[in-house]
Amino acid sequence: MTKPIHSLAANYYTDPQIFKIEQDGLLAKTWQFGCHTSELAEVGSYATFKIAGESLFAIRGRDNQIRVFYNVCQHRAHQLVSGTGKSSVVVCPYHAWTYELTGELRSGPNIKSVEGFDKSSICLTEVKCEAFLGFLFVNLDPNAKPMEDWFPKARSELEEWVPNWAELKPLEWVEIPENCNWKVSVENYSECYHCSLNHPTFANGVVKPETYDIQPQGMCLRHTTECQSLESMTYDIQSGMQHHDEYSSWFLWPMFSFQVYPGNVLNTYHWRALDADHVVVWRGWYSVNGEESEIVRQLAIQDRETTVEEDIHLVESVQRGLSSRGYKPGPLVLDPNCGVNSEHPVMHLQKWMKEAIDG
Predict the structure, then answer these.
(1) Which CATH architecture group holds 32-143?
(2) Domain ranges (residues) in the chain
(3) Residues 6+ apart with CB under 8 A from 216
(4) Backbone angles phi, psi at 354, to 5 degrees
(5) What tens-digit pLDDT sequence spans the chain (359 residues)?
(6) CATH architecture, range 152-358
(7) Rounded Cα–Cα distance for residues 48 and 56 (Å)
């Protein structure tokens, strides 16, 4: 670098038109979390969700494959399903056009009376999807490269850090509304420059901030740090697994992160952008078979009452500041040695953000 790199202009976070550009482009052409595959355990099980403003549903077929479709009938565009459930076929509630679990049209009232009607030519519009350690991700771009190309080594590393991932199911989902742009929240998550000052419980009872570092790994930001000394930890981390005394996180651009707390406790962040000024952060906590776990429950409560609550005040203050006429984007603190007091991961994020918007 020959001169400082400045943060993005405020309008990237406040302009509704930029948010629309993101919905039509970035959010429709990246890997986004849909649902946990435990919701699709049986043939015919389905779950609905929204990606980039589009209603979609995932369903398990008789061949045991999970497929994702746009949630719209090919007859007169009525929504097909809502929420979660189970069905042997997909029946449109408007005119009872009926689809196989593979998306092909099976039948419809009086369609045989239509001369030249070719049932085999009608099928629900499928969306590219991948199951990733029990989490279903989708990409509206039919030409999207596999997740391994986007996030190299993330899957294998997570399998090492969470070797019992196949047994894990959601114990608790917590929805956290934040009055800020999704990018403000993601940037805050992606640096620990603010941790010691603003997150005393996390910084003193979970991780050693001085060892915290974040490095790009494809379109993944990889967080690593040591945990606090055992006598300083706020909970028992003796899991009997490797990496039990470490913390790590895999942020998958643009809106999802896997975290593994000391003790191999898996938890996740999922950002759901509502508009330019509002995002909901969906915090997930997981246990074996989704059964009650004192440690996981304790951690979830601790996280919600400390780090989560502290971050809400931070990001909402930033959003207010971005709307101030007095704000002029300052230089990012980029330490050549990286480390906890460097904003190099924010630099990478802002580069990805700008490229997605400006092309």
Answers:
(1) 3-layer Sandwich (2.102)
(2) 32-143, 152-358
(3) 222, 345, 348
(4) -65, -40
(5) 578 999 999 999 999 999 999 999 999 999 999 999 999 999 999 999 999 999 999 999 999 999 999 999 999 999 999 999 999 999 999 999 999 999 999 999 999 999 999 999 999 999 999 999 999 999 999 999 999 999 999 999 999 999 999 999 999 999 999 999 999 999 999 998 888 888 988 888 777 878 889 999 999 999 988 877 766 677 787 888 888 888 899 999 999 999 998 889 999 999 999 999 999 999 999 999 999 999 999 999 999 999 999 999 999 999 999 999 999 999 999 988 888 888 999 999 999 999 999 97
(6) Alpha-Beta Complex (3.90)
(7) 6
